[in-house]
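Recap slide: Cytochrome oxidase I, sequence and predicted structure.
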Amino acid sequence: MENLDVTVLRALRDWRLAGRGALLATVVRTWGSSPRPVGSIMALGADGAVVGSVSGGCIEDDLIARYTQPLAADALPRGSHAPRLVKYGVSADEAHRFGLPCGGTLELLLEFDPDAGALQQLVQALDGGRLVHRRVRLANGHVQLQPADAPAELAVDAEQLVNTFGPEYRLLIIGAGQMSEYLATMALFCGFAVTVCDPREEYRASFAVPGARLLATMPDDTVAAMQPDARTCIVALTHDPKLDDMALLQALQTPAFYIGAIGSRRNNAARRQRMIDHLEQTEDSLARLRGPVGIYIGSKTPPEIAVSIMAEVLAVKNGVALPPGVDVAHVKDSQALAAAGSSCIVG
């Protein structure tokens, strides 16, 4: 499944290249609870077609009505106009009307008939794996595209809005087993581009996840070829040191935002010791290596374990600091200590 921003921008570009009227809505500010974060975008065609979202649905319905009914008293303009800032949920009654959470207010920037050429350049840059700042002058809607070195939060002031768009987040899964199928499926639904590599033909033969790229190359060669960036994560699921260890070591030389391996606490400790003893690693060089991967949810089955892994990947991606109470190793260590204490008491 394609990155949602790219999907929205691609649809908007196609509409504008075809000469169709359309607007681009961007969430620029929120107060209180909000169903969509700042930076979320939605494309709305003059015929009422919608791609993306800025809320749970009620705001979209209002925008559709105001944009597709030009004779209405509160109709939105058609054709080329300066961008317009609009707020929803200012009062409690309005928040309730538009389905916003209690106390929620959001502000949108509406751009009318964005330039097709600039949209084409932006989509091409994203397809080429580049990160881009899109600057919009609020006075006239003029758009300027600039290369970006790192992801950034949306910024808006009295003169301009700057939203940063990047290529798809990527997930490399090492191993094509059953759990890999569940994890790949979840990652695709979360907008990741998924690659699965496994040189073992018997595992590849049964792997079937539409949308995931399946490779027969050695994992460390695959990592090197992918050139992971800060929007890439790598998860090793084979339990086989011959496949996992060198790939993980290769990944640690990159800016990938998440690098981890499945396995018990004992297996992960053994992996670290192997890397220190035989691969010239140190505790510092292995600091970014996660394991056991996932958050503690009491998972036992492959799909439940995949859920826990995807949850941790998304938390790291979104910059959420997870408490010790959901760290698998921490919880298992605490449980082991509690069990040992109970045993001593009983004895």
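The longest helix spans residues 328-346.
Residues 155 and 162 are 5 Å apart (CA to CA).
(End of recap.)
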